[in-house]
Amino acid sequence: MPTPVPARTLWIEMLLVFLVGRVPCSASPLPVRVSPNAPFQERLEAAHNLLQESPLIDGHNDLPWNLRMFLHNKLHSFNLSADLTEEKPWRKSPFSHTDLPRLRKGHVAAQFWSVYVPCETQYLNTVQLLMEQVDVIKRMIAASPQETTLVTSPEGIETEFKRGRVSSLLGVEGGHSLASSMGVVRALYDLGVRYITLTHKCHTPWAECSESGSSEANAKGLTPFGKEIIQELNRLGIMIDLSHSSSQTVSDVLSASKAPVIFSHSASRALCDIERNVPDDILSEMTANGGLVMVSFYNDFLTCSPTATIQDVVDHINHIRLKAGIDHVGLGAGYDGINRTPAGLEDVSKYPELFAELLKDPSWTIKDLKKLAGLNLLRVFSRVQEIRNMLEDETPSEEIIPIHDIDAKWPCRYKFASLEDAPRT
Fold it and tell me: Rounded to an integer, what distance in angstroms lies between the CA atom of residue 273 and that of residue 132?
């Protein structure tokens, strides 16, 4: 006959079963937030730990255009895995801030590479140049397979983060590159592009840019064909990027899009009053849209002057958090497309310093900081894909832009002493 089990023992065993059933065995203790009054080195160590636990995603980097400007897209003398601070011509260029060693030092888990061609190519060979930029990015990634890989989904970012590789993603900067063609839009999706910036420093035939100039757009905001483009981007699951778009274009997109939008590299207009930055009324609309403003690190966007500091970046982040909410702010520095960076954020390796600075503010929780770093972008990316799945029964758009919208007299043109001197961000 079995020995009777004491009632106290039975009670303890039942309690353990109850607790184990409610708490996963793999659960780890919640991280303890460092004191806001902690010394800088302690806060910096906490920032490193945080970014090892949760992915940091940068929304915009212009290194691929520098490959064309410096090397004519010939990669035999280029290695993303090398320390470019020691390599010609990179070490002396004010536009050079990125390589894999520095991405790792900065804990960048995912980098959107900008697929960019200048506005001057509109109506000319823009699609050819765009394809060449896609090609050079893919070859750059393929040359460092142990350290980075092309990723096209939020799940891919999370998988590669766990594996320890940097996720490389593609974002096309400037709708002029599409040549007003639905076929080009679909081809770009097939090539791996996951966001498209609707305009750059020029109007497209179907969308108004934020830049002032003597030329006039076909319409304030989006034309009817522009609204068709938005629907096709929703159907495909391509994120819509509104950096460089006029306020009217932004409003039209927010009305037309079924999916949340992003600003891949923008700042707050309330703190630096230029057309390129996002005004408060649009920041307030981000909450309803579910979208995301990713803060640029370009001095001219932060302070409307050639100089800025890490605190200026913090100020823009905090203002966007205040107006839009913590779920709607992210990071899109614009490195390699800018020639003036804030003191303390000189290149991609400096992201931990930014988080160490934010840790001085007790209103920033660990959860909030992880959202800023990358969880907000993962949420938006996932929602865009959910919308795509909801629209999977819709047929591809066969709309063709009206011939009267193709008018070569008005593209905004911005002349510099040389293209190498022109900020791309």
Answer: 36
